[in-house]
Amino acid sequence: MKLCRFEESGSIRLGKIVDDTVVDLSGVPGVESSMRALIAALPKLRAALESAREPTFELAAVRLVAPISDPQKYLAIGMNYKAHADEAAAAGIPNPKTQLWFNKQVSCISGPYDSIQLPKVSTQVDYEAELAFVIGARCRNVLAADARRVIAGYLVANDVTARDWQFRSPTYTLGKSFDTHGPIGPWITTDDEIADPHALGMRLTVNGEERQRTSTGDMIYSIYEQIAYLSTVMTLEPGDLIATGTPAGVGIASDRFLADGDTVRVEIEHLGSIENVARAEL
Predict the structure, then answer these.
(1) What is the DSSP string of 206-223?
(2) Which of 27, 258, 87, 2 is nearest to 13 (CA)?
(3) Is the pTM of the predicted complex or chain greater than 0.70?
(4) CATH superfamily ID and name for 74-280
């Protein structure tokens, strides 16, 4: 299934994408308004969600919003693609010897087609195409071999980063967490629809110019290793959002940061695409 949140007639509801339509799931017994709650109840609700057929809306007639707006955590791994780690090293940033994790504060989350704000206080707003996934079950101390069972689904993310703020603190959090710097979407594709999350093509363009292209198979640490590492430290909860790293080609490597009016598009095979226009803060 492709689970989404959509706005129609001023109301935001949960739905699923079927071809070029959105099936409204709000009438399914047990479905409320929170995608996080739906993810937690997905095993119990799956049959009813899959069989839902109406009411429907044309996809072009509704507005897709962030497929999950209220995760308890938004975690992201740094330098998890070899080519990106190499370009960072060339810029004087040493390669981490272990998995390097940071928080994006959940208030940064925005929709798949919302604007990216260029803050007045930053001159180095950058893009990072990423595959993200959503945790589907409360878990702790998960073995990598068992990790796939706790994944609810996958989505497209852009880990927008204010580089000048990122390097003011060793935790990266401030530079990763400006409002609107977490566009995600366009929907959550459930795990059962993806044969191998490590074999997906990923591409980012700015104004139509390709800046990043890779396969998710180029990750240094697999999704399953990431889950094992994180769950050694903390309990992961349904709805937690995890971004899995970006490939080479980020703006800081070529000193090409986002400017007012730039259109950034991220697309991942089988998961769809998001597209966001950069707008200067007024």
Answers:
(1) ETTEEEEEEEGGGBSS-H
(2) 27
(3) yes
(4) Fumarylacetoacetase-like, C-terminal domain (3.90.850.10)
Q: What is the DSSP letter of 195?
A: S
Only one residue has tokens 């998710």, namely 216
Residues of the chain with CATH 3.90.850.10: 74-280
Are residues 275 and 112 in contact, defined by beta-carbon separation less than 8 angstroms?
Answer: yes
Rounded CA separation 99/51 (Å): 41
Query: pLDDT tens, position by position, for the chain (282 residues)?
Result: 999 999 999 999 999 999 999 999 999 999 989 999 999 999 999 999 999 999 999 999 999 999 999 999 999 999 999 888 888 887 777 888 899 999 999 999 999 999 999 999 999 999 999 999 999 999 999 999 999 999 999 999 999 999 999 989 888 999 999 999 999 999 999 999 999 999 999 999 999 999 999 999 999 999 999 999 999 999 999 999 999 999 999 999 999 999 999 999 999 999 999 999 999 999
Rounded-to-integer distance, Cα 130 and Cα 244, Å: 6
From residue 61, give the alpha-carbon distance in Å to each of 58, 156, 281.
5, 22, 29
Q: What is the DSSP letter of 69?
A: S
Cα gap 121→78, rounded to integer Å:
23
d(CA 23, CA 1) in angstroms, rounded, equals: 11
> What is the β-pairing status of strands 182-190 and 109-110?
parallel
Q: Return the residue matching tokens 């940033």.
A: 93
- Region at 122 (left for phi over 0; alpha for psi -120 to 50; beta for the rest): beta
